[in-house]
Amino acid sequence: MKTIEHFYSADLDWVENLAHQFGGKVEGNFIIVPEDIQTGTRYFLQCQDGIVAYYIDVEYKKNLHLIQKNTNPNFVGYYYNLTEGEAIVSTHNFVYDVSRWQYNLSVIDGTLESDYHVTKGSKTFALVIFIRKDIIESYAKQHDIVFPNINQLIDPAKNTIVRFDRMSSDSFHILNDLRKKKVGGPIFDLNLTGTVHLLISNYLKKIASKRIIIQTVNQDDLKSIIATQTYLIENIFEQFPSIKFLAEKANMSESKFKNLFNKITGTSPNAFFSQNKLLLAKELLEKKQLSISQISDKLNFTNNSYFASKFKEHFGLSPKSFVRDL
Asked: Which of 35, 92, 155, 304 fits a 20 to 30 Å CA distance from 280?
């Protein structure tokens, strides 16, 4: 495994260092990485003052461990990651599997250290956007996106911006359209800049429409919340444990636990458990090895009717219709 220790920021001071860590070089807007590590494209662009895009479309030839330790934490990274293969993000001695929980959008404050592990043979198509925190405020005002507490949101003394999320279908299609373009040159740069602005606008509108929890998050809190997520996933075939049990497991009060869980995942612990139970049900139906009734029993739904109603609520069609359409 090759280990790379690096940093990011909302300007381009990280580019030469990252290329050097890879044993590569910078040519124009491309980071050239030796082919025994990866094949494909790494491209960067300063979209405007305080906003940088980092475009990645590569296949890994080695197991990689990238350790991010930022020297200037006054930014937020939006990581749109469509990896095919095994990729995980970890921080402070805990790990979460991006593909398993289908988190393909991570929003991580520059104050937080994080690691990225990817296995040989994995293919990554990703667009990372680094935006300076003060730009978030001016950007929201410019696009008429109302945050009643924007000053607190970007104040590191009062709030840590962190979210493990799923990108919207609109964002997914925007990224796929970008991937069809030939990388490099003024036309691609124009498309990349437009994509970055669309993604920022879409995401800010999404979070502005929900209750925003203003709270600082340290590495230990983050570790505890992800540990409870891991526990829920590992016990996905059981019934949901109580909030009291999970809060005690996280060594937090119930109110702090619920707030932090919602802040980091955008949903409640119960909803997180239910959504992942339904995602697993969908996978089991696709394998066609168990009947609808057997899957309902296996995943501890109250009864078949309840399972069918929750499945339709989540996926837009009943389990029977889903199987028929496979």
From this structure: 92
- Asked whether the beta carbons of 188 and 182 are under 8 A apart, the reply is yes
Per residue in 134-151, pLDDT (tens digit) is 999 998 988 899 887 888
Q: Is 221-326 a CATH 1.50.40.10 domain?
A: no
Confidence (pTM)? 0.82
Give the C-alpha separation, 32 to 88, whole Å: 24
The set of residues, in sequence order, having a beta carbon less than 8 Å from that of 80 and lying 6+ positions away, is: 104, 105, 126, 127, 128, 129, 167, 171, 175, 199
CB proximity list for 218: less than 8 A, separation 6 or greater: 160
Residue corresponding to tokens 């296949």: 59
Q: Which residues are CB-neighbours of 112 under 8 A, at least 6 positions away? A: 91, 160, 162, 217, 219, 222
Domains of the chain, by residue range, sit at 2-208, 221-326
CATH topology of domain 2-208: Jelly Rolls (2.60.120)
pLDDT at 93: 41
Query: Is the confidence at residue 96, as pLDDT, over 60?
Result: no
Q: What is the dihedral of CA 166, 170, 176, 178, to 10 degrees?
A: -120
Q: In this model, does residue 23 exceed pLDDT 80?
A: yes
Could you report the per-residue pLDDT of 200-236, keeping only the tens digit for each? 998 998 888 877 888 888 888 888 888 898 899 889 9
Strands 87-91 and 114-118: antiparallel
pLDDT at 94: 43
Kind plus residue range of the DSSP H or E element containing 201: helix 186-208
**Of 84 and 95, the one with more pLDDT:** 84
